[in-house]
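Worked problem 6 (solution included).
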Amino acid sequence: MFKYWQFNGQDQNFGQAAHTDIGTLTLLFTKTARLQVLIPETQKWTYIQPHDGHITVNIGDSLRFLSKGKLCSALHRVVPTEPITRFSLVYFMRPEEETNFTDADGQVWKSIDWLRKKFAIFRGPLSEQLKGSYMTGRNGFVGLWDPAEYGRGKGLSGVSQE
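Solution. The predicted structure is:
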């Protein structure tokens, strides 16, 4: 279970940088729209509106690699939308630790090594996240949220206003 604190409208370091998930599938149970995905065709971020009785499913890197790119990892980030504390329940599914796959650059990885590499970068400073394409699948792209969008009606109802 994740707990996301209330946003005060000013903190520049709130939310998460853009990323793709590590494993095969991520199942997200939540009632608050704070998840944004980058729409590939428009290159715009949009909120995913949760619906009662439904879950959001993200495809992760491991499934992208195991499917040889037929399935795509969802590039997403978590940003504040309302001044409330939010809880969400997330279930991450990953392949066995010794499962081998080949990444987009042709490098062969064991599942556990990919997990460790990505977690190390995710926990590291922004300067490290900008190196390579481990976080987002795009070299040098971090996709930070702009706090100036907060309070302008963007996502306050849980859906994109664009």
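Discussion: The radius of gyration is 16 Å.
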